[in-house]
């Protein structure tokens, strides 16, 4: 919905923690709850208090949905009394509901301001011990959203040192998150300082002071972040900034270890970015080709349409192994399977060249392997008459490449190929002629000619 | 605690020679066996033991504070008395004569205390060796207490007159505090002296007082006085906060502390329910063994003819319908004094649900005129519409469709507002109720938190939107001739649906269907169940409209309609039980 509510949701793990706290089993069945409730009161009429407060809650939600902040605030005023509900289940669930709805109202209400939001957050933090950390974190995010970095940082520091109630595992993760966000804020200052540093001359009298500052920042940050990223989860921004700092101070092994762990640890959820970070890092380090290929191979399995796949193809093509050459073809076909890549001229150019090369290298079987599963739908997906016309109109170079591929795969009789051939183009004339010859020679439709 | 402190005092009692001392509120010793109070106070002894005067003063200060935290000693029945007093006061402010409070309700309550053996009798019910109740202690001197002449004109001391003050008098004068030590040690406790015991007490044949019962008392007194308030009005006033009910305990005197079991006794989280209070009224009436109530005659507000007029006006129906309702009342005998008057000592004590009955009569008349089968009422409306177009100068014929459209809109708006108001209702009192002293700070902290949050959000609320509560009125809708969007049908004529025959008028519609075919033969009060989808939409609408006005369940109104029909078509019922749904109504 909005930026802010996105932020409120937080990382995936956060939500999981939430539900498990509420039900204890990590599962939540609303219908079961109402059923249990009616059993508990022995079929008696629900108290009017319970009825009106639940009606009140739906009124708040409805008003929020319709962006009637004023009405929402009015109902919220009455909804606060659930904090005093004699039903302990409802009483315990209330602070979280109130915080979520209340912060939403205060975020949008025209009469609301930073001050009211802050007071509200501080109040809500101190209702019970269950919600302090979560609310502190979300409060900090709100402050960040408004550019109040200092206040956000202070908030996180306060939350970090807060010790009340039981130490549960969910709390541990929250503490780690809070520290990591603090680390992220420190990274932000650090990177600003680094920018300053890069602008300064080495002989500048201020250089040393700033450099010292930059250095001091880094170890605090790394301590804050490193704890979090060891826990399975998706921590992209944290990992990225952490690695950047490690690299800056020349700790390449450390950085590589973090990234390898992030990408390969099985406990972590599958995350394409992890592999991308690792690949980019290896690229910067000028790592051997085989290593990079193995990283991208995994990325290929997760996201076959990723733009790095073209780089992957180049790596494979340059490899000496034959199986890599076959994979190179597979990757190109894979990229073009996606609607988002249909106009990617590089991909088509690579495919045209590589098809020709493969066919020239007598690997017809490879091509047929790929083509068999696509011959049903590629013709209408890529090579229709409509596409021929519009491609030619938009980008003649692309149309040429595609026509060549179409010719190779479908033979010279295919509509796309014929349409492009018919177009009389001054500059491309020669190229088209060459293409025609190649098609005649190598097209898989008429294999006899290739021998 | 008190007992512990008193252990230092070892002298024999001057009256009974026992060595068993307790401490009074003032710090004086009293004998727990004969209640003799000595002149010796704790401080005197303490000075002997601890010569430091400052510590003594400190001691004293702490002790006082402790006492104020505990509050007075009070009994549960005094709590109810206070609530009744508040309610009577509120009724007086609504315009009910002062006799209701001073004579009627007061006497009912006294009678209740006597019947339930809580006061005004030789051996009050209080068990576990507790001494005579506060009430008897104080009132045994007044001449009517020993032999209450109920419902007589003897002018009574204004016992109920100023609840709070008179109670505080009772307590300051009370010489022997009953030690609470034994209670606070156990896990169950209460602020009142007998709260724990009261919540466990179950005695056959005694109607136990509850907060909803206070409304039964109020209604009984209103009925006795034949006041112009129906039960549904009373309950609506409660819902609209014109009569103290929910959180009535928060107006108890400061020193009457409530916690623990008192919470279950005085904390209320539901609005009163019509049927429940109705049942309780009969129960209380029977328990008090009250004589036959004053007659409900034709000029009483509760007489169906008058109530029908009121409800016809309320729902914007033509005045001419009143003739028909009067006719139905006459034919069914529902206007008879014996039928209408409440007589608790009669064999089968029952009182009439005056308001529900009046409304049911109107529904029956609507069925007689328009059949309400989702068909005839619309064709009659077409006729009326045509007639009205042609004769614009004449008195317009009543057009059911137009009425439906206007009422539907008004009803939906009212209901929406009602639902919103209910959702916004603030249930929690300023004085939070807690289970024990341990919970007290938590409860107060919660309360403070809620108040603070509300204060914060109140700045976000449009102040004009929440301006004040409605002033009480027995009408919920207001129809006037001037209002142009909301046509007033009071003056419209029924000519379109009636025809003359000889000297009498007949309904054009000669058909009728009964709301129920069968009545339960057993003794259950169930007449029939109301399954909405089995009935026509117009009938559903009319039931919904009226039951909303009375804040009752539609099924209850449906039941009452069936009962009226049973009386109206009594002969038919016995003869043609198995015949078809539609029946002829040749009554006019």
Describe the secondary-structure layout.
The complex is a heterodimer of chains A (451) and B (588).
Chain A: H1 3-9, H2 12-23, H3 30-40, H4 48-65, H5 69-79, H6 88-108, H7 114-125, H8 132-145, H9 149-160, H10 169-199, H11 207-228, H12 236-248, H13 252-264, H14 272-284, H15 289-302, H16 308-318, H17 322-336, H18 345-360, H19 364-372, H20 378-381, H21 385-394, H22 396-410, H23 415-422, H24 429-442
Helix pairs in contact in A: 4-5, 5-6, 6-7, 7-8, 8-9, 8-10, 9-10, 10-11, 10-12, 11-12, 12-13, 13-14, 14-15, 15-16, 16-17, 17-18, 18-22, 21-22, 21-23, 22-23, 22-24
Chain B: H1 2-6, E1 21-23, E2 28-31, E3 37-41, H2 42-49, H3 53-70, H4 76-93, H5 99-115, H6 134-139, H7 143-146, H8 163-173, H9 181-185, H10 195-200, H11 211-224, H12 231-239, H13 261-266, H14 274-287, H15 304-314, H16 321-332, H17 337-340, H18 354-370, H19 376-390, H20 400-423, H21 440-458, E4 498-501, E5 504-507, H22 537-550, H23 554-568, H24 570-575
Antiparallel strand pairs in B: 1-2, 2-3, 4-5
Strand segment tally of chain B: 5
The percent range for helix content of chain B is: 40-55%
Number of strands of chain A: 0
Which two protein chains have the largest interface (Cβ within 8 Å of the partner's Cβ), and how many residues from each? A-B, 35 and 31 residues
The helix/strand class of chain A is mainly alpha
Strand order of the largest sheet of chain B: 1-2-3
Q: What does this 3D model show about the protein?
A:
The complex is a heterodimer of chains A (451) and B (588). By secondary structure, chain A is mostly helical. Chain A is 72% helix and 0% strand. The radius of gyration of chain A is 30 Å and the shape is extended. In chain B, α5 crosses α11, α11 crosses α14 and α22 crosses α23. Chain B is elongated, with a radius of gyration of 31 Å. The N and C termini of chain B lie far apart (81 Å). The chains are: A mainly alpha (451), B mainly alpha (588). At the A-B interface, α4, α5, α6 and α7 of A face α20 and α21 of B. Chain B: Keywords: DNA-binding, Metal-binding, Nucleus, Transcription, Transcription regulation, Zinc, Zinc-finger. Chain B: This is TATA box-binding protein-associated factor RNA polymerase I subunit B.
